[in-house]
Write a structure and sequence with these properties.
Largest sheet: none
Oligomer: single chain
Number of helices: 3
Coiled coil: 20-72
InterPro entries: PKK, STE20_Ser/Thr_Kinases
Shape: rod-shaped
Strand content: under 5%
Keywords: Coiled coil, Kinase, Phosphoprotein, Serine/threonine-protein kinase, Transferase
Structural class: mainly alpha
Distance between the termini: 124 Å
Radius of gyration: 50 Å
GO molecular function: protein serine/threonine kinase activity
């Protein structure tokens, strides 16, 4: 029995060693497999990120082009509107001047002719330049900027 016992122990130890080596080899194979899978996933992730960045850049470019086009259209519309406004400015000014002339004629009919303001002799050194500087000049230029709404 002693011999068979030793034999069993010896074969048992061999079996355990073989199992241990097989287990380690299997574990190493799984680790390599998982490492390759992880590398593949990282590569896929990097490719996806690059693709998304490219899409985002394309969308940004399209948005910028769209906004530039809208801005150009608005500038053109503003330019047209400004030209129309300037074209109507002179007729409006003439209409206002005619209206003021009619009002002045009507006032002269009701109140008599308007006599120019004469300054007393001690103030004759005032000329029109100094009057305009203190706000006593003609109102014609300030009224010509009034437009009908």
């Amino acid at each position: 029995m002693d011999y068979t016992h030793n034999l069993c122990l010896q074969y048992g130890c061999l079996f355990q060693e073989k199992e241990k080596k097989r287990y380690q080899a299997e574990q190493q194979r799984f680790e390599l497999k998982h490492q390759r899978q992880l590398e593949e996933l990282r590569a896929m992730s990097d490719a996806t990120i690059k693709e998304l960045e490219q899409l985002q850049n394309e969308k940004r470019k399209m948005l910028l082009e769209h906004e530039t086009l809208k801005l150009k259209q608005r500038e053109e519309a503003f330019s047209i509107e400004l030209k129309e406004w300037k074209a109507k400015l002179k007729p409006r000014k003439q209409k206002l001047e005619e209206m003021f002339a009619q009002q002045l004629e009507e006032q002269e009919r009701v109140y008599g002719p308007v006599t120019p303001l004469t300054l007393p002799s001690d103030l004759t050194d005032l000329n029109t330049d100094s009057c305009s500087r203190i706000g006593l000049g003609s109102t014609r230029s300030s009224l010509s900027s009034v437009s009908e709404g």
